[in-house]
Write a structure and sequence with these properties.
about 150 residues; 4 helices
Length: about 150
């Protein structure tokens, strides 16, 4: 497995370009994927560029497609506005699968959080034709009680 690529931010504060010759489709995919979740700079359209139309996406909370990403981003940014998801390591398999282990850091419902997970993408021509995310969904589903602050 390869080590993470960090936040991959250029000197202007925007994601650095990662389309470089000599890299495998999987490496370019992971580098581009690593620029998606960046707090208020998170961009569903950047993620959508990595997927063909109708691409199925499954996670422990819900299933959807590429076209559902803007709504998904709105929901996640509402509860974790400073989200930063960073790959910690990744690997590609002979059949075109990319496995990405990641850490999500930020403030979920206002409290510091560090969540670990893994995503699996099947690549075809450099784009993911399906994706599955694996993580413990409980922190997202257990909103803090309004009575807790009283």
């Amino acid at each position: 497995m390869r080590s993470g690529v960090g936040c991959n931010v250029g000197t202007d504060g925007k994601p650095a370009s990662t389309k470089t010759q000599g890299k495998s489709d999987a490496q370019v995919f992971v580098e581009n994927w690593s620029t998606v979740w960046r707090g208020q700079d998170s961009d569903p359209h950047r993620y959508m560029e990595l997927l063909p139309e109708g691409c199925p996406l499954v996670n422990p909370i819900s299933s959807g497609t590429r076209e559902d990403l803007p709504q998904l981003f709105d929901g996640i940014l509402a509860i974790e506005p400073d989200i930063c998801v960073t790959p910690t390591r990744w690997a590609e398999t002979a059949d075109g699968t990319v496995l990405i282990e990641w850490v999500n850091t930020g403030a979920l419902y206002g409290a510091p959080v560090e969540l670990h997970g893994a995503d699996r993408f099947t690549l075809k021509d450099g784009k993911a034709c399906e994706g599955q995310s694996h993580f413990d969904p409980r922190p997202f589903l257990q909103a803090p009680s309004a009575a807790a602050g009283q």
